[in-house]
Write a structure and sequence with these properties.
alpha+beta, 2 domains, 59% helix, Tetrahydropterin Synthase, Chain A, 3-stranded antiparallel sheet, 165 residues
Length: 165
């Protein structure tokens, strides 16, 4: 029985020593892993945030004025002649699109003249009507530019002056 006691007491310190070493190694690995995870996470997050910031910032806007101003007779039965005078600028964020817009300016002007001459005074009496006309004009420009260049080219169309008489 004394041999059994010796085996039991001899095994206990080894088991507790071995358990302590395993716990210490496990804790060190956990701390090391946590430090690596958090430092890698921050290092990876910084470039990702920079990429998102670059992607969120649009290219600078470039404007092309369609000079001179458009002047058309308004369509419809109204007492006396009615006119629309509108100044138009096209906005693009594509540096390659600006020369294409300049090249196709005569065709753009022709399309917009036809569109503006079909307007009735009641259609542009309020802001919503002017915005619908603006959207229609942009759609005409984008349709033409897509047919000519394969790209929409114009991101926006702005009325910088709008006069009816």
């Amino acid at each position: 029985t004394s041999k059994d006691k010796d085996k039991e007491t001899a095994g206990k310190p080894r088991r507790s020593l071995m358990a302590t070493v395993l716990v210490a190694v496990g804790a060190a690995a956990g701390v090391g892993g946590a430090v690596w995870y958090f430092t890698q996470g921050q290092a990876d997050a910084a470039p990702a945030k920079a990429k998102v910031a670059k992607a969120a910032t649009p290219a600078p806007a470039q404007y092309f004025a369609l000079d001179p101003a458009f002047v058309v007779n308004l369509n419809g039965s109204v007492d006396g002649p009615r006119y629309l005078q509108v100044e138009v600028q096209l906005m693009t964020r594509d540096a390659e699109a600006l020369p294409a817009l300049q090249t196709h300016a005569p065709a753009i002007r022709a399309k917009l003249l036809m569109l503006f001459s079909q307007v009735e005074p009641e259609q542009i009496a309020d802001r919503a009507g002017k915005e619908r006309l603006q959207a229609s004009a942009l759609a005409e420009v984008q349709k033409l530019m897509t047919a000519e260049t394969g790209k929409k080219a114009a991101d926006d169309l702005l009325f910088t002056s709008f006069v009816t008489q």
